[in-house]
């Protein structure tokens, strides 16, 4: 079960997989390394999918990787993509509802159009994925005699704490906690699990592409190094660069989140259902950092003499 056959023969989709450096793209790579048969990488723009296909091919993965244009808040488009995948492959096994964006507006500057778009993409979009993806997971064929599947939605540390985002983003991501627990209950007689991963601060393209993504488009011609650099101002503002010796101030890599997505999508997590897993290196647990405790020294090694 562990290793390159973790997702052997499985077919599904990953949304928000279109940037050259992001959680969705890393998720596709991890799932391909785990032996998935076909992965549909969906986004508002698919121009980076060819480099993703090449990367996976170079790594020796046999997975079919297809790029598809999808606005996750659009019902017709969502139905069309899950129907297409299920018709072609005779199965639909996993759905990684990961698309999102984040703009930091204060309340004065937050208009209803901003609120509606965030909730539409990051909550309605996940609902649509669960509603229609679950129907596709119930389709059986010679290749898939038993119905079932797994959903992994991408929440956020902003669903756990109030100071990590603007207000509509927190609303959208917090709503996913209910979506995950309620979804797991409503799919409990269908052999379908629903879980989520809530990343903490993670290096990705999000701060670069969010302005366009909020308007339903994504045009990004920056390379990976530029994207990583574009995130540093925000990490500085968030205080992560001040005490880098603390584990909770780590700058997480998208592949670390993808590892959790793989775990939750696979049978390794068969006893986990209806949970939103916080993946923030302990940032939320540390809350005020060392403000109360004073500087936290490393533990002295055990005296072996
Ligand atoms: N990077 C972080 O620090 C962080 C922290 C917490 C949560 N998240 C969440 O992780 C997820 C992935 O983001 P990322 O950090 O990898 O950034 P990213 O920008 O690399 O990926 C997000 C992708 O979602 C796409 N997208 C936005 N709206 C869409 C829509 N309507 N339909 C289809 N695709 C759409 C964007 O075009 C982009 O490609 C998001 O849901 C985000 O909210 C990220």
From TrEMBL:
Gene3D superfamilies under this entry? Answer: NAD(P)-binding Rossmann-like Domain
Q: Which GO terms describe its molecular function?
A: oxidoreductase activity
| Lineage top rank: taxon | Eukaryota
- InterPro entries linked to this entry: NAD(P)-bd_dom_sf, Sc_DH/Rdtase_CS, SDR_fam
Kindly state which keywords UniProt assigns to this record, in alphabetical order: NADP, Oxidoreductase
UniProt name for this protein: 3-oxoacyl-[acyl-carrier protein] reductase
Record has Oxidoreductase as a keyword: yes
Entries under CDD domains matching the protein: SDR_c
Q: Which family does it belong to?
A: Belongs to the short-chain dehydrogenases/reductases (SDR) family.
């Amino acid at each position: 079960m562990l290793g390159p056959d973790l997702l052997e023969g499985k077919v599904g989709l990953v949304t928000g997989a279109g940037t050259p450096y992001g959680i969705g793209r890393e998720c596709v790579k991890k799932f391909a390394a785990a032996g998935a048969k076909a992965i549909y990488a969906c986004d508002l723009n698919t121009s980076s999918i060819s480099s993703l296909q090449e990367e996976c091919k170079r790594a020796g993965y046999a997975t079919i990787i297809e790029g598809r244009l999808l606005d996750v808040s659009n019902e017709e488009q969502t139905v069309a993509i899950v129907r297409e995948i299920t018709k072609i492959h005779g199965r639909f096994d996993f759905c990684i509802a990961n698309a999102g964006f984040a703009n930091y507006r204060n309340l004065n500057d937050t208009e209803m159009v901003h609120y509606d778009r965030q909730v539409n993409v990051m909550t309605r979009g996940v609902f649509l994925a669960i509603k229609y993806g679950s129907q596709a997971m119930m389709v059986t064929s010679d290749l898939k005699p038993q119905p079932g599947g797994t959903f992994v939605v991408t929440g956020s540390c902003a669903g756990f704490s109030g100071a990590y985002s603007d207000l509509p983003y927190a609303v959208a991501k917090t709503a996913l906690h209910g979506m995950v627990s309620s979804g797991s209950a409503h799919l409990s007689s269908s052999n379908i699990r629903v879980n989520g991963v809530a990343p903490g601060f993670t290096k990705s393209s999000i701060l670069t592409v969010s302005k366009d993504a909020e308007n339903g488009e994504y045009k990004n011609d920056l390379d990976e190094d530029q994207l990583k650099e574009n995130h540093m101002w925000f990490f500085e503002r968030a205080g992560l660069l001040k005490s880098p010796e603390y584990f909770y101030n780590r700058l997480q890599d998208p592949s670390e989140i993808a590892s959790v997505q793989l775990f939750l999508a696979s049978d390794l997590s068969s006893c986990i259902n209806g949970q939103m897993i916080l993946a923030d290196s302990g940032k939320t647990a540390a809350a005020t950092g060392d403000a109360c405790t004073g500087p936290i020294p490393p533990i002295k090694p055990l005296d072996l003499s």
